[in-house]
Amino acid sequence: MADRVINAIRYCFGLLVIITTLYIIANVVRAVELIIGFITLSFGVLTIIWTLIAKYSLSPKSTLRLFTNNFLACSIAVVAFSIVRILGRLIDIPWLILVEFFFIFATFLFFLLAAYYMYSIGKE
């Protein structure tokens, strides 16, 4: 019981440190959207890395590897969208919104393919 209380205090303290750090950075830099964008981008890159590790640990012809390929494509499209979004905040290019829409379209296309694969597996 004492270990649970100590772990809960540690997690609360860690969360408090993260919130305080973000608050201080936001007040110093005054660009909260860019900070959150870079944090999100780092999570996206980590997602791609772990997905690649998972993909190569699966057998080459498995259905799960096919889903992993779709998940990887979706992750890459979302990370590319995030990069374009951050660039759009740093430099003003009017047609950049079209590139953003392209990456959103690509993400939905890969989700559509994954849904079709799930439907075809469900019919088996």
List the helices and strands and how they pair.
Layout: H1 2-29, H2 32-57, H3 63-90, H4 96-123
Task: Describe it.
This protein has helices at residues 2-29, 32-57, 63-90, 96-123. The mean pLDDT is 86. The chain contains four helices and no strands. The longest helix has 28 residues, at 2-29. Helix 2 runs antiparallel to helix 3 and helix 3 packs antiparallel against helix 4. It is an all-alpha fold.
Question: Which structural traits does this protein have?
Answer:
single chain, 124 residues, mainly alpha, 89% helix, 0% strand, flat
Quick recap of the structure?
The chain is 89% helix and 0% strand. It is mostly helical and 124 residues long.
Put simply, the count of helices is 4
**Average pLDDT, all residues:** 86
Percentage of residues assigned to helices = over 70%
Number of strands: 0
Run of helices and strands: HHHH
Q: How much of the residues is beta strand, in percent?
A: under 5%
Distance between the termini: 48 Å
Helix/strand class: mainly alpha
Low-confidence stretches: none
CA radius of gyration is 20 Å
